[in-house]
Specification:
The complex is a heterodimer of chains A (89) and B (579). Chain A is an alpha+beta fold. Chain A is globular, with a radius of gyration of 12 Å. Chain B is globular. The chains are: A alpha+beta (89), B alpha/beta (579).
Chain lengths: 89, 579
């Protein structure tokens, strides 16, 4: 099980486009992946879950990955977040 | 004791018949408990429906893919993610197992519970996602029904003679089915007088009253009603006197229609010698027949949206066949085919995912076609291929800039080249016209006229955009005023630009088919009118009996300082020969 603290640095946080990209990326891995904020924890492969979590969260999230490809999954998702999901600003 | 309900009359017709209530919600969404041994099969049924839904979405995505339309692609991608979402799908599957209920019901319950979570967040942005969720849930439910397009037609009885159908709302596609089953009249709870269903009801000559609030609650199955389309009234349980009164009225209106038909054989000239041309608006085979009977010069507007109204986007061959049939039916008379004018209130389900925050101002008409060029090319190729069957003109809807014309013309030229390379001969001079229906196009109409072979004024949309009212919205439809000076200004400019450039200007909106408004257009210099076949005789009579010079004077005076009349249409009504 890997645990990574994430900071959302893009302007809109985990809304719409970013959430889609995150879910798409997460769905590509076999590991089970969660995003957590406060006492809420959602399946990162669920667009509904990510959106429901994103609304109350500020800019800090915890990523939890558990499974055969957990290292690569954690790295990929952390990079996506750090790269502002490919957004310009 | 009789009761009167009021709404908005769409057609002037009268219908007498018995009520049949259509409540599609209950029928399309069955809810039932399962036997324990049926649970596995039910989860499998849902898995397959999800899979078909996904195939449908990826099919649409594929078509959108090459065109570089990012927004549409992202929306579709988001819908695919929702379609695979474990919080929706897995959870619904669990509900099937735990609660032993059918898939539609489980999905509805799970969708509602997610909606509830979103609602609690009170985030404006997420309200939009709720809409997406709703759309995906209904997409799967449609797939669960397996024959989404057949659904409506199976719910409706096969014979509807003497039946007044009552529904919450009716889509244009539903209306064509109802018309084939010879429904006597229609009542809906919602909808505006300029909605496409209303327009279609007029062209199919089905008496219709819409906006009758709570009609489904107030009207009982099988009770006798009189529907008066002229006054927008529904008279429930009429007594014998009232019944007789309306039967007489119905007979009189039939006589009047037969009288009007005498005008069809006369030359199209005003009594002071101005020639005019009457074209038909048609899309269904029955309308082409009626157009021929009315002796029209050709088809001024063949809409193609009906081809896209089902859940499937028609391929090139299916479109080709439809256009060929139209051309053959018109036997050598020109047919003006308008390319897909989706958007606003007439978005085909298959393209519904491109819906933006404000459909009336969004990706619609030619804009949509230019953003989904693969789809547009198929339509253009189908039209070009059909042109060997008879004279065709291409009409581009919803122009805003001349750049759009150049883009469309470029695509037409490319398709023509492709077809030539495939060994087909296509008329190289096939005229390309454009619809003037945005204020921007009307204000820049001289430049537009230089790039086009003919102009067509779509008065429904133009009025809507000039007056900034939604024709579907019952709350503002009272502002609908076809004699607004701002509108007359734009109409006059367009007619003038056509004259200056030496190209034809046709009016193909509702106004052209209105006996009094047609005189107003005549006064503005319009000589080409296109309308549903049922309206040709009345308009022809009105124009034959009108004095062109007199109409022109009245309109000019009104435009200048509104002198001489408060009510332009009323003044024009009395400007005829025998006044």
């Amino acid at each position: 099980m890997k645990r990574v603290e994430l900071e959302l640095v893009n302007r809109l946080g985990l809304h719409a486009r970013a959430a889609s990209k995150l879910v798409q990326a997460a769905s590509g891995f076999d590991s089970r992946i969660w995003l957590a904020h406060g006492d809420k924890r959602v399946n990162a492969k669920s667009i509904m879950g990510v959106l429901l979590l994103a609304a109350p969260c500020g800019r800090e999230l915890t990523l939890e990955v558990d499974g055969p490809d957990e290292d690569e999954a954690a790295r990929t998702i952390a990079k996506l977040v750090a790269d502002r999901f490919g957004e310009d600003e | 004791m009789s009761l009167t309900l009021t709404g908005i009359g769409v057609t002037s017709g009268i219908a007498l018949g018995r009520v049949h209530r259509l409540t599609p919600g209950e029928l399309t969404l069955p809810e039932y408990h399962l036997d324990a041994d049926a649970v596995e099969a039910e989860t499998e049924r849902m898995r397959q429906a999800v899979q078909r839904g996904d195939r449908f979405l990826s099919g649409v995505l594929e078509r959108v893919g090459g065109s570089g339309n990012e927004t549409a692609r992202e929306l579709l991608e988001a819908h695919r993610l929702i379609l695979q979402d474990p919080m929706l799908i897995e959870a619904a599957r669990e509900r099937i197992r735990d609660q032993q209920i059918n898939a539609e019901w489980a999905l509805a319950l799970q969708g509602e519970s997610l909606q509830e979570e979103f609602r609690r967040l009170d985030d404006e942005y997420l309200a939009l996602r709720r809409e997406d969720l709703e759309q995906v849930v209904s997409l799967i439910q449609r797939e669960l029904a397996e024959q989404p397009s057949a659904l409506f037609s199976t719910q409706v009885p096969h014979r509807l003679d003497d039946t007044i159908l009552v529904a919450a709302e009716l889509a244009p596609a539903d209306l064509t089915i109802l018309s084939q089953r010879r429904v006597a009249g229609l009542i809906t709870e919602h909808g505006g007088p300029w909605s496409h269903s209303a327009i279609l009801a007029r062209s199919l000559e089905i008496p219709m009253v819409l906006g009758v609030h709570h009609a489904l609650e107030l009207l009982e199955e099988g009770e006798l009603v009189v529907l008066d389309g002229h006054y927008g009234a529904v008279l429930v349980r009429p007594d014998e006197n009232l019944q007789r009164h309306y039967s007489d009225k119905q007979a009189a209106s039939l006589r009047h229609r037969n009288e009007l038909k005498r005008y069809l054989a006369q030359p199209s000239r005003t009594h002071d010698g101005r020639s005019f041309h009457l074209f038909g608006n048609a899309e269904l085979p029955i309308e082409f027949e009626n157009c021929l009977e009315a002796g029209v010069t050709g088809i001024g507007l063949m809409r193609t949206e009906y081809l896209f109204l089902d859940d499937q986007i028609p391929d090139e061959d299916a479109q080709y066949r439809a256009y060929c049939n139209a051309l053959r039916a018109m036997a050598g008379r020109p047919v003006t085919i308008r390319t897909l004018d989706a958007g606003g209130d007439k978005l085909p389900d298959a393209l519904a995912l491109t819906r933006g925050p404000n459909p009336a101002l969004g990706l619609r008409g030619l804009r949509l076609s230019l953003s989904v060029t693969d789809l547009f090319r198929e339509q253009l190729r189908a039209i070009l291929r059909a042109s060997v069957e008879g004279p065709v003109r291409i009409l581009l809807p919803m122009l805003t800039t001349t750049a759009e014309i150049a883009q469309a013309r470029q695509l037409i030229a490319e398709c023509r080249e492709e077809l030539r390379a495939e060994g087909l001969t296509i008329d190289p001079e096939l005229p390309v016209g454009g619809m003037i229906e945005t204020p921007a196009a009307a204000l820049d109409v001289q430049a537009m006229a230089r790039e086009l072979d003919f102009l067509s004024i779509g008065t429904n949309d133009l009025i809507q955009y000039v007056l900034a009212i939604d024709r579907q919205d019952e709350l503002v439809s009272y502002l609908y005023d076809p004699t607004h000076p701002g509108l007359l200004e734009l109409l006059a400019r367009t007619v003038e630009a056509g004259r200056h450039q030496g190209i034809e200007v046709t009016v193909c909106g509702e106004l052209a088919g209105d006996e009094r408004a047609a005189r107003m257009l005549l006064g503005l210099g319009v000589t080409h009118f296109s309308m549903p076949p049922a309206q040709v005789a009345g308009v022809k009579k009105s124009l034959i009996e009108a004095g062109y010079e007199h109409c022109r004077e009245i309109v000019e005076r009104y435009r200048k300082d509104r002198r001489g009349t408060d009510d332009l249409l009323e003044a024009l009504r009395h400007s005829g020969n025998g006044r």
